[in-house]
Design brief:
By secondary structure, the chain is an alpha+beta fold. Helices cover 20% and strands 33% of the residues. The strands form four sheets. Strands 6-7-8-3-9-10 form a six-stranded mixed β-sheet, with helices on both faces. The structure holds adenosine-5'-triphosphate. Adenosine-5'-triphosphate binds next to strand 2 and helix 1.
Amino acid sequence: MTSQAIPTEIDRQVSHEAPVLAMHHIRHAYGKHQAVEDVSLYVEQGEVVCLLGPSGCGKTTLLRIVAGLETVQEGGVDLGGRPIGRPGKAHVPPEKRNVGLAFQDSALFPHLSVLDNVAFGLESLPGKQRRARAMELLEQLGMEGYAKSYPHTLSGGQQQRVALARALAPAPSLMLLDEPFSSLDARLRDRIRDDTLHVLKRVGAGALLVTHDPEEAMFMADRIALMRDGHIVQMGTPLELYCAPRDPFVVTFFGEVNEMAGEVQGGRVKTPIGEVPVDDIADGTQVRVLIRPEALKIATLDEPPEALSGDGRHGDGDDSHGQHSHVVMAKLLGRSSLLHICAHGADGWEAHLHARVPGVFLPEEGQPVLINLDPSQVFVFPADGAAAGA
Ligand SMILES: Nc1ncnc2c1ncn2[C@@H]1O[C@H](COP(=O)(O)OP(=O)(O)OP(=O)(O)O)[C@@H](O)[C@H]1O
């Protein structure tokens, strides 16, 4: 299995409407430090796009450029087909962009009630309509009971919801969210994230959300732009990034992997748990084999043979090992169990591997096991960093 098995990017559907956001070849530097290098992306109406990547890769800089908090140095920004940021051209200020901002520490106005906070950006509406619109948003976020409260009496999660209601109240065509859930504890974060996703979909706003958390990106996004060092490494649906990663960085960013080195011979590469077919890398190439923990299908030897690979051997290869692989340790992680396995391959090749199995599966230390590989979660890349198939 290689990274090229299914298409890695969907071409933008031809649409009669301009995307709510289009960024063209954006480059941005702080002094001599190049923070963003030639980034292009678009967000369609009603679409949630996540900028995902490690700290310092340029996510917030991109968001600040769209918000108008940074001027465009190179490239261009269009909102709804209208150019609003070009180098050397008049800069459209943030408040004239019809963009909603929800940042990690979006502070509420302490001297205003919750209702007045949400109504704040609706000054173009008559008083009665302002209040009705603000109330509508508070209802959507389950905060209508707190309309008369003041921010200091609310919990962090409640404040976050009010901040979101305030950003959404003027019906922006685009919402910009920068790590909006990161200050919340895990359980609250899950709930507010879920609420936010449903409200965004209900109001039909496009959204560009910054996060460094791959699970959050997969939960929220229609498409993800995975960034590294100011570049987009891969852009696509969560399924595309997870199941057809373009390079090892994309695989490893989404979680722990078992990694081993090998050489392609006869269109296959040997591992201690069998051979892996490789379609598009030349024989003789040194490769990195990345195996997700969930790709290892574990069967204890007293299980029925249909749980194993067709002929009861490891992987799909020819390994008739003298010794079976065995369990070193098994830990329950909650929704899944993590097994540390000592895999015994041909020619005395041993490897310490991690396997993740859904639910409670805690075989004893030393328990002999057979390992079968799910090839859809095994990725092979040339060791020299060249793209597979290149
Ligand atoms: N105002 C600034 N002045 C100088 N350098 C900056 C400034 N803002 C950001 N940088 C640098 O630009 C790079 C990109 O920063 P940015 O905040 O866009 O990254 P990020 O991906 O959002 O990081 P994080 O997830 O930590 O917020 C980093 O190396 C950062 O140190």
